[in-house]
Amino acid sequence: MADLRIFSYLPNPRVWKATIAARFCGVDVEIRGAPAKDLRDWLWDYNARPLAEHERTSLSALARTGRVGLTGSQLFKTDAFMEAQPFGNVPAAFGPDGEVGVFESNSIMRAVARLGETRFALYGRDAYEASRIDSFLDVSLVFARDSQIYLLALSGGTVDAAVHARAREAFGIYASGIEQALSSGRDALVGTAISLADICFAAELALFMNEHARADQLSKVGLDRILHPAVQDEYPRTFAHFARLVEHEHFRSDLKPYVEKLLSKAGA
Predict the structure, then answer these.
(1) Which residue ranges does the record assign to the GST C-terminal domain (predicted)?
(2) Would you call the peptide bond into 91 cis, given omega within 30 degrees of 0 as the criterion?
(3) Cis, peptide link before residue 35, omega less than 30° from 0
(4) Which of the 8 DSSP states describes residue 98?
(5) Which of 28, 40, 41, 153 has its CA 20 to 30 A from that of 187?
(6) How far is CA 202 from CA 28, 34, 38, 128, in A?
(7) Buried b / exposed e along 106-129 (16+ C-beta atoms within 10 A)
(8) Residue 86 covered by a domain
(9) Could you tell me if 25 and 117 are in contact, meaning their C-beta atoms sit under 8 angstroms apart?
(10) Which residues touch 92 (CB under 8 Å, ≥6 apart)?
(11) Would the pTM count as exceeding 0.85?
């Protein structure tokens, strides 16, 4: 039985925060899920699975209206799922018994680090390092919120100048802080080894790169990409660190194919 089971839409860089951490720590993480559009046809539960057609009628009492990302969709969520996941969102993680739920990708990643803390100190070597890591994770939440609003607007064809400006400002603040943290030639954001701060940074930037796949939507409303061709010149340490992490043995299998696919769209 896995130490942690995660149900989510896939692919999802925010889920990979946990799988990357698991490789460092030797924690067994099980992933269940499907592309976002297909989750309408899944039972949302610890034992998440695709629904048979006849079950959509027999389980109609479980139907709930989706919100973020699946707005307006009819989703089949069990009462046990809602008990464990009170906000009803994915990624949704569960302990081995399915009763304890962990939600929000940074918290799921922290759970993995705690489970494997004796094997690799991803969450810092003392209370001070752990708190500094938390500082990076908290800052990432501000960027992640505006990033999500922006990417959903792009995918839904509703992006406008205000949403774009807010995302651009959020990215600038986040990237500037990362740049400063790496200014002394460091190879990690906290301490001397990779930590949860680095994992979160890599996953959030990879997710933001979905902007590359929506260049046409931006062009139609007269907007430029936030990740424009010269952005690496503005934040050289930030992007060099990202490139190193993507090539790292514990990051590569999740992030490299995803990033390369998006970069190919940027080139096109």
Answers:
(1) 126-268
(2) yes
(3) no
(4) S
(5) 28
(6) 21, 22, 26, 22
(7) bebbbbbbebbeeebbbbbeeeeb
(8) yes
(9) yes
(10) 6, 7, 8, 44, 81, 84, 85, 101, 103
(11) yes
Which of 115, 139, 161 finishes a domain?
Answer: 115
DSSP code per residue over 38-77: GGGGEEESTT-EEPPTTHHHHTGGGEEE--TTSTT-EEEE
Mean pLDDT of 65-89: 84
| CB count in 10 Å sphere of residue 3 | 17
Q: Are residues 199 and 227 in the same domain?
A: yes
Reduced DSSP (H G I as helix, E B as strand, rest coil) percent helix, strand, coil of the chain, to 5: 55, 10, 30
The predicted structure's pLDDT at residue 266? 81
* Assigned token pair, 17: 């925060």
User: Residue 64 is part of a domain; what is its CATH number?
Assistant: 3.40.30.10
DSSP codes joined into one string, 234-260: HSHHHHHHHHHHHHSTTTHHHHHHHHH
Which amino acid does the sequence have at 60?
S
Range of the domain at 244: 127-267
Query: Which pLDDT belongs to residue 224?
Result: 95
Give the Cα separation of 194 and 187 in Å (integer). 8
Q: Could you tell me the sign of the dihedral formed by the alpha carbons of 102, 108, 112, 117, in that order?
A: negative
Buried b (16+ CB within 10 A) or exposed e, 64-77: eebeebbeeeebbb
* Residues 73-102, mean pLDDT to the nearest whole number: 95
Of the residues 69, 87, 115, the one at which a domain ends: 115
Nearest by Cα to 77 from 107, 53, 103, 46: 46
Count the domains in the chain.
2
State which amino acid sits at residue 154. L
Handedness of CA 144, 146, 150, 153 (dihedral sign): positive
